[in-house]
Design goal:
Blueprint: H1 3-19, E1 26-30, H2 54-67, E2 71-75, E3 83-84, E4 87-88, H3 89-99, E5 103-108, E6 121-125, H4 130-137, H5 141-149, E7 156-162, H6 170-179, E8 183-190, H7 204-219, H8 231-236, E9 246-250, E10 253-256, H9 273-281, H10 286-299
Parallel strand pairs: 1-2, 1-9, 2-5, 5-6, 6-7, 7-8
Antiparallel strand pairs: 3-4, 9-10
Helix pairs in contact: 2-3, 6-7
Length: about 300
């Protein structure tokens, strides 16, 4: 991370904590909800299957930038399906950097060629060992691993949503992140139970067991891009929600924190690690602040 970026984020954090500001710093643009997969745990794919035009996405990027957002995510659906004429996802990332965003990340299912060195991180969904990943996402594991091997940069971070199907395979993904070329780290979430996927949610005891495993992996030197100081809050679901410092924009509509905010009582069951981490950070939690500084400087 550049020194100028670090100083900007440090200044933002101090002002937010001291003055209890609700200005966003992290924003997500949904470029499409079209997806080539039908994952068992996903409730937001192929609802409209609309691929939003470049002009609209650029306008939304500028809107987020003017709000103060400096960490930008491109999400889907599947982001690599996005095209507008000859323009591709890579053009969006380049435009975002030119616009002034300090960190630009992309979320993908990894089934397309990973030629995106301009992105700070490519958050790639991998949901367990080969068998259990394929149960969740279809027969994609080998394709994903081949694309990782052929990637043009080492900016990949595994992104695992832990649920009832893959809860016993956290170690597998940690070791794979540690031992695979071009993979920088692994980031976890617990399954957030949309109404049509409630059966995949973990109990409190199951969450605690998973957090114990992740903590063990951190001690063993696996590159985990999460803050263990937030784990007790995630297990108990007692971190403050929503996260006002994060926003999502989709087809011109801005949602605080995420699209799930409109689903009744879903915030109370939030499984997003970053939401716990950011809300605790901006509440001034000292352990979280120290751990985030160390983790972000290491992996971004």
């Amino acid at each position: 991370m550049k020194l100028s970026s670090f100083l900007h984020f440090a200044s933002f954090g101090i002002k937010t904590i001291l003055f209890k500001k609700k200005t966003p710093i992290l924003g997500t643009v949904i470029v499409t909800d079209k997806c080539n997969l039908h994952c068992k745990h996903c409730s937001v794919n192929n609802i409209t299957a609309v691929v939003h035009p470049y002009s609209k996405i650029k306008q939304e990027m500028q809107q987020l930038y003017d709000m103060g957002v400096r960490i930008l995510f491109f999400c889907g659906g599947e982001t690599f399906l996005w095209k507008d004429g000859e323009l591709t996802l890579r053009d969006l990332v380049v435009e975002a950097k030119a616009m002034g965003f300090l960190i630009v990340n992309v979320v993908t299912n990894g089934t397309y060629e990973l030629n995106l060195p301009e992105a700070d991180l490519i958050l790639l969904s991998l949901d367990g060992d080969r068998e259990h990943h394929n149960i969740i996402r279809g027969d994609t594991y080998d394709t994903i691993m081949k694309n990782i091997e052929n990637a043009t940069s080492d900016n990949i971070c595994f992104y695992m949503a832990i649920n009832q199907i893959n809860k016993d395979y956290v170690k597998d993904v940690c070791y794979l992140a540690r031992d695979t070329k071009n993979v920088r780290a692994v980031s976890f979430n617990f399954h957030t139970p949309y109404p049509d996927t409630k059966e995949l949610a973990l109990s409190k005891d199951e969450k605690a067991k998973c957090c114990d495993t992740i903590t063990q992996m951190i001690k063993e030197g696996c590159p985990v891009f999460n803050l263990k100081s937030a784990f007790p809050y995630l297990v108990e679901n007692n971190f403050p929600t929503p996260c006002h410092q994060c926003v999502v924009i989709e087809n011109g509509k801005i949602s605080t924190c995420g699209r799930c905010i409109e689903v009744d009582k879903l915030c109370e069951q939030c499984g997003y690690f970053f939401v716990a981490e950011y809300t605790l950070l901006f509440k001034g939690n000292i352990k979280i602040i120290c751990e985030m500084l160390k983790t972000y400087l290491k992996y971004i």
